Amino acid sequence: MADMIIKNAYILTMDPSVGDIENGVVVIENGMIKEIGTSTQCSAEKVIDAKGSVLMPGLINTHCHAGMTIFRGYADDMQLQDWLENHIWPAEAQLTDEDIYAGTRLACLEMIRSGTIAFADMYIHENKVAQAVDEAGIRAALSYGMIDFGDKEKADKELKEGSAFVKEWNGKADGRIDTMYGPHAPNTCSRDFLIRVKEQAVKDNVKIHIHVLETEAELNYMKENFGMCSIHFLKDIDFWGPDILAAHCVWLSDGDIKILAEYGVNISHNPNSNMKLASGICPVSKLLDNGANVCIGTDGCASNNNLDMFEEMRMAALLQKVSTMDPTVLPARKVLEMATINGAKALGIKSGMLKEGYNADMIIVDMNKAHLTPVYDVASHLVYAASGKDVETTIVNGKVLMEEGKVLSLDEQEVIDIAIQRSKDLILKINN
Ligand SMILES: CSC[C@H]1O[C@@H](n2cnc3c(O)ncnc32)[C@H](O)[C@@H]1O
Ligand SMILES: [Zn+2]
């Protein structure tokens, strides 16, 4: 007897060798996909009838600061440097374990609700992020965010904390938590520190999550201080490889794009954050044309201001079209690949496709809605017409985290109430 069967669904497998299955069935056992096809001989304890809905791989958010969800709507409409240095960093200095736990629980709730099954995170008090992820049932690649600003003592302390986090949490929560090292950016971390981080990550066999060339200011800083841009600087210290998840990559030259593709670097494109902070536009279609792995993230809730990956997919497509003045670039299926297959590759997880032997990480999208009617092309609706609110069921590791719109792994009202209380206490502390 299997654990679960989902039947009568339009299945968007994202498996290129199979394609879509119009009236399909998926069998789940021990957190994995046991069978996928048009029929099954299996029976299961739980059967979900998904008639009229789309069953697809859950979305993967490859750049987030989940704890920052406590700052949703705090410090809008500013230049990135002003926003970060004069507002966000002073506010973060006031954050406690409990604030980050509350913010991350709120983030997990929103992600489960809007069809995200996994996210990559970089933040402070990351132990509390891990605790929240463990309890919420979602999957994540977590890193303690490190900044040394060229201070050797701070570098030692940060690396010690990043290392301790990796040792404590890697592979935990039934394998749902992976860890990474999280040096913040090439303009906030010293050269020596980045070299040490890379060495440690290789030793620990974990990946690295870093912001790269988000702003023109970073590009200018690197050129002034090192005589080269961040891409060449990181190449110079043997940093690049398929173990690197580089967020943003907005200010790239054609030569930089070739380097990122050649080294198999994973690039998280964060269109809403880049638009809101007016950072610029990542050359996504050029990166993809050169064979780079580009995936999609939301960034934190203080620069977005939500974690809806459906919205992020739509923005990714529209932004490339208008910036290249070519409506044929980044068609819907390609964007879906970025948010599923490419995200899974970046995180090194067997998700992002509905295929035998893969993690049972999937979502059911209700298509019986006015704004999703009629249907000529399912992929088109998922990217251009749907939103996270259309997700009715979310399954991670074979466990149902939300069923027919009810979140089962978290007490929704409690999560919201605590986040409200924490935000009120926080603003009093910040303003004092
Ligand atoms: C050291 S933990 C991570 C650090 O990153 C900050 N952050 C959030 N969003 C961005 C962004 O768009 N660019 C650069 N840094 C960002 C966050 O506030 C934490 O301090
Ligand atoms: Zn970020």
TrEMBL record:
Cofactor dependency: Zn(2+)
E.C. number: 3.5.4.41, 3.5.4.31, 3.5.4.4, 3.5.4.28
Molecular function in Gene Ontology: 5'-deoxyadenosine deaminase activity; 5'-methylthioadenosine deaminase activity; adenosine deaminase activity; metal ion binding; S-adenosylhomocysteine deaminase activity
Gene3D superfamilies: Metal-dependent hydrolases, Urease, subunit C, domain 1
Cofactor-binding details, from the entry: Binds 1 zinc ion per subunit.
SUPFAM superfamilies noted in UniProt: Composite domain of metallo-dependent hydrolases, Metallo-dependent hydrolases
InterPro entries: Amidohydro-rel (IPR006680), Deaminase_MtaD/DadD (IPR023512), Metal-dep_hydrolase_composite (IPR011059), Metal_Hydrolase (IPR032466), MTA/SAH_deaminase (IPR050287)
The protein's role, per its UniProt record: Catalyzes the deamination of three SAM-derived enzymatic products, namely 5'-deoxyadenosine, S-adenosyl-L-homocysteine, and 5'-methylthioadenosine, to produce the inosine analogs. Can also deaminate adenosine. The preferred substrate for this enzyme is 5'-deoxyadenosine, but all these substrates are efficiently deaminated. Likely functions in a S-adenosyl-L-methionine (SAM) recycling pathway from S-adenosyl-L-homocysteine (SAH) produced from SAM-dependent methylation reactions.
Protein name per Swiss-Prot or TrEMBL: 5'-deoxyadenosine deaminase
Species of origin: Methanolobus mangrovi
The organism's taxonomic lineage, starting at the top: Archaea, Methanobacteriati, Methanobacteriota, Stenosarchaea group, Methanomicrobia
Gene: dadD
